[in-house]
Amino acid sequence: DTGVSQNPRHKITKRGQNVTFRCDPISEHNRLYWYRQTLGQGPEFLTYFQNEAQLEKSRLLSDRFSAERPKGSFSTLEIQRTEQGDSAMYLCASSLGATQETQYFGPGTRLLVL
Amino acid sequence: GDSVTQMEGPVTLSEEAFLTINCTYTATGYPSLFWYVQYPGEGLQLLLKATKADDKGSNKGFEATYRKETTSFHLEKGSVQVSDSAVYFCALSSLPYNQGGKLIFGQGTELSVKP
What are the backbone dihedrals phi and psi of residue A25, each rounded to the nearest 5 degrees, phi first? Predict the structure, then answer.
């Protein structure tokens, strides 16, 4: 069990650029979640996968955001045409599912849009 | 919609003091309740959980009891240590515990413990 990993840990980009983040969940965890956390606030849910199926998307997830989990393992979150308001910490979590629902969080990717 | 409200921080205590961090929630149905902790420079970690009314979650000397009548899940510790300095988040999951689903977090309460 190596924990949830996220890459990159930090990303600085210019407004209008596209960025992509990767999350590798704990192996055998079939549920994967993305959250966004801004300074001084709690994490806010963005989207959730069970295996490769995206089961829920928040209204916070505008059309510029897209997430995939193509083989039910790692996931990517892409933000197109970034805006300054996208600056935040993006958190990934995974859970085993079934009777064990504890979500284990990764260290996050901090995005700064200039 | 469902929501979680925590007492505002920062909270500053002396070592060995008693800690209470208040958390109340609004939810339809019967949510599961959680406390997560974020130590400086680290990711969120589950501290404790309770999945039904009157359950008490406990871990590392921290406790919280699921009170349905007051819609509360207050975090307590009898004697805090400097190493407990962190940000504490209360959260709920509206779906039954074994059916997954998103967590809804409070805004977090920063705790600072002085020697």
Answer: -75, 175
Encode pLDDT of B84-96 as tens digits. Answer: 999 999 999 877 6
Q: Report the residue from B43, B97, B98 with minimal CB separation from A108.
A: B43
Q: Is B43 on the interface with A (CB under 8 A)?
A: yes
Dump pLDDT digits (tens) for A60-105.
Answer: 788 999 999 998 899 999 999 999 999 999 999 999 876 557 899 9
DSSP A26: P
CA distances from A23 to A2, A93, A97, B31, B85 (A): 13, 8, 17, 27, 28
CA neighbor of A57 nearest in space, from A41, A72, A77: A77
Beta-strand ranges (E) seen in B7-102 are 11-14, 19-21, 23-26, 32-38, 44-50, 56-59, 62-65, 75-77, 86-93
Other Cβ atoms closer than 10 A to B39? 13
The residue among B35, B102, B105 with the most chain A CBs within 10 A of its CB, best to mutate, is B102
Q: Best interface-test mutation with B: which of A100, A103, A109, A110 has the largest number of B CBs within 10 A?
A: A103
Nearest to A45 among B36, B45, B103 (CB): B103
Torsion of CA B19, B25, B29, B32, to 10 degrees: -30
